[in-house]
Each structure stands twice: as structure tokens, then as C-alpha cells.
Amino acid sequence: MLATGFLVLAVLTVRQVVPGRGDVHEIAGHALGTTYSVKLAEPLSSSRGAAVATAIEGRLDEVDELMSTYRPDSELSRFNRHRSTRPYPLSAPTLEVFAVAQDVFERSGGAFDVTVGSLVDAWGFGPGDRSSRPSTPEVAALRSRAGSEPLALDREAGTIRKLAPDVVADLSAVAKGYAVDLVAETLVALGVSSFLVEIGGELRARGWKADGSRWRVGIERPEPAERTVHLALDLADEAIATSGDYRNFREQDGVRLAHIIDPRSGRPVPYAGASVSVVHARAAVADAWATALSVLGPEAGSAVAEREGLAALFILPGSGGYVTRATSAFRAKLGAGTLIER
Ligand code: ADP
Ligand code: MG
Asked: Residue 268: CA atoms inside 13 Å, Cβ hemisphere, count?
């Protein structure tokens, strides 16, 4: 969850294949400005392990080359430099990510908005090394460039069009989830039937382990310094993404600024030390919604998630510890006995 726009590391992808306990093997490394881990519940010969690892790296490099805001040569960076309202041709993956973003933009009433790109930069969470707070007029000017559906997708033509030439898009809140989906699809294509893919905290599972159990994941408490599992959840063939202000924030003039921008105010969401997790079949959709619900907060966010039939869980500071707020779709997982609260 540290990644913002895929800070490019000196080493693009570093891979490690670790034989684990029983039949679980792990392929891990760095990509997209964060870490990844792929666990496979099957016997893995070294040649098969190498082939799977190479396929995974290929997909991660692909997403980085297309959607990184840190790479001036990425497809997204080139699109951002295209200061024109003429249609711009995009690759199928980037178009797909824009389509997920557009859908969540509409359903969340604009809380999720990839056109916050310039605001992300202005508040110091982008590729630039800005350290001063933007002035109120600057925020107002940048905000006027974002929101109100400033992008038009034409999936048949394979193009996207800026409705204002200076719109800058940031796909960071959805691309990591999308990369998780791509890796999962690649594993299925390679005949892997049971796996857990994780990239920077976004996960997707499939199948059962050798002992017949599901992949169990921990949802952490939203504490900045410690890593304590608050809830354990068994994933079926589904994904979970978590968003929050508790790890990726900066202190400026004694104020904690979250890296999530509220497009309605043009300002970082007020720091609340909270998190929200979304379970969905697709990691890209879960990722986008986790960010959208972070913007909306537990009150409005729970209502929107409920209306959308989303399985969402907020963890918030409360009465000496943490309290949770789950939608009925999330509670249904609880009812099935898959959720253990600690
Ligand atoms: P993380 O990267 O920590 O998993 P997110 O998925 O929530 O967290 O993505 C946060 C990133 O998304 C920010 O760093 C910024 O680049 C971008 N972003 C910030 N606010 C919004 C927003 N309201 N809608 C879409 N993207 C956003
Ligand atoms: Mg997200």
C-alpha cells in the first residue's frame, strides 16, 4: 500500500522463488513501486517455478510500462502530455483500467476520480518532489480541471478523449488491483489451480490448499507503526483490496495529509486512522472501490456500498480500540463462518 504511481525502484523486478511449508511455494519480488508475492499450492519443479515467475514478471512489467506515473515514457504519461481534446489511442489494458475507473466514478458520485492527477502532485504525492502546501486559489484552479466526467472513452475505437486539454489522469488507485487480476489470469492460463496473488496489499485467491482449506488473509488494524491482524478472512475465488490513510500520509506543518484526495474539495481526506476493505471478484474493482469508500468515509461510504451490494468493511478507531462497520454482503461472509474477529 506504499506505492503511489509506482515509484520506480533501481531494480525493476527482483524475483525470489521460495519453497514453502507443505506444498505452498512463493514467488516474491519488487514491482510497481511496491512488493509482490504469489503463493502456489502445488508441487513446483524449478523449471516450472522459473517459467511461472517469468510470466508473472512479464505482466507486472507490462502494467508498469503502461500505467506508471513515475515513468515519463509510460503510456499514461504520454497520454497526460497529450494536451489536446482529440481522441487518443490506448492499449486494451489501459482502456480497461479507465473503464473500471469510469464505472466507479459514476457509481461513487465522483468520489473516485482518476483526474485528480494534478491535485495528487500539488499535495506532494506524485512524481514531483513538492513540499509546500498548495494555496487555496491553486487548489480551486486544479479542482476545476478534475471531475465532471472530463474523459470520454470509446472502447470500440480503442480511444480516450480529454474534454479539456489539460486533464491529467492518475490510475494508481486501480492499476495495482488490475495487475493482481492480470497475474491471476496468467496463472489460470498456465494451469495453476490454487494460488494467492498479492501486490502492495491487494490480493486475489483461487482454489483450495492441499489440506482442503481456503487461502486465509489477514486484514490489519489501521495503525501507522504496527502490523496487527484485526480480522482473518478466508477468500474463495475472489479478491480483497484495502485503502486507508494510516500508512501513506505525510506530515506538513504538523498536519497529517493522506494520499487520498477528496475530488469535491480538492484536498486530502482528513486523517482518521481508518481503513476500508472491499471483497470483489475482480481486484481492480475492489481496489477502485476501496479508494472511493475512503473518500466517502464510514457513514456515506457504508450507505453507497450497501446500495451497490458491495462486501465492504470499515475499521475505525473507537472506544479504546477499533470498531468495525460491515455491509450486509460482508456480514454474509461472517455468517458463513469465514470471519474471525480478534
Ligand atoms: P494504495 O496505493 O495505498 O493502495 P489507493 O489504492 O487508495 O491506495 O490509491 C491511492 C492513490 O490513488 C493516490 O496515491 C493517488 O495517486 C490516487 N488517488 C488519490 N485520490 C484519489 C481519488 N479520489 N480517486 C482516484 N484516485 C485517487
Ligand atoms: Mg485503491
From this structure: 25
> Could you read off the pLDDT of 177-218 as tens digits, one per residue?
999 999 999 999 999 999 999 999 999 999 999 889 999 999
- What is the distance in A from the centroid of ligand 1 to the CA of 249? 12
Helices (H) and strands (E) in the chain, counts: 8, 18
Per DSSP, the three-state class of 278 is strand
CA-proximal residue: ligand 1, atom 11 (nearest) = 173
Length of the chain as a residue count: 342
User: Does the beta carbon of 257 sit less than 6 angstroms from any atom of ligand 1?
Assistant: no
Cell numbers that stand for 163 in this block: 474534454
Q: Where are the domains of the chain?
A: 75-172
Percent of the chain at pLDDT above 90?
61
CA triplet 175, 178, 180: central angle to 5 degrees?
A: 115
Higher per-residue pLDDT: 265 or 68: 68
Ligand 1 pocket, 170 CB below 6 A? yes
**Mean pLDDT score, 64-91:** 96
Q: What predicted TM-score, i.e. pTM, was given to this entire model?
A: 0.90
- Cβ–Cβ < 8 Å for 3, 125: no
> 75-172 is classed in which CATH architecture?
Orthogonal Bundle (1.10)
